[in-house]
Design brief:
The protein is of the alpha+beta class. It has a single domain (8-98), classed as rbstp2171. It has five helices and two strands, in the order E-E-H-H-H-H-H. The chain has a two-stranded antiparallel sheet with strand order 1-2. A hairpin with a 2-residue loop joins strand 1 and strand 2. Helix 1 packs antiparallel against helix 2 (41-51) and helix 2 packs across helix 4 (70-82). The protein is globular. The termini are far apart.
């Protein structure tokens, strides 16, 4: 993460470690497009490493190395905060209701 903000700056505290991430639309899109049914950890790791504050990168790398599954949990927490709640409600069509 450079000094110039890419988008939304989010801060996480995990196990007494404060981490700052700068997430923009391109970061989000690249992550979502790279996640597949059989590949979640590597895209999550890459997403975290490319968006974390560069001064905290080594600390995050060490944490991830010693904490199984942390990549997916941290990425999930960031994405939940980054993406807006649109309040989407799916309604059944009238033809589906009459069946």
């Amino acid at each position: 993460m450079s000094n110039k903000s890419n988008g939304q700056v989010l801060k996480l505290t995990v196990k007494d470690i404060d981490l700052e991430f700068d997430i923009g639309r391109d970061d989000y899109n690249k992550y979502v497009n790279s996640v597949t049914q059989n590949s979640k950890v590597a895209p999550s790791h890459n997403f975290l490493m490319t968006t974390v504050n560069e001064k905290q990168r080594a600390e995050l790398r060490e944490f991830l190395k010693n904490t199984p599954g942390a990549e997916v949990q941290l990425a999930g927490a960031l994405l939940e905060e980054y993406t807006p709640d649109l309040g989407i409600v799916v309604k059944k069509s009238s033809s589906a209701l009459s069946e």
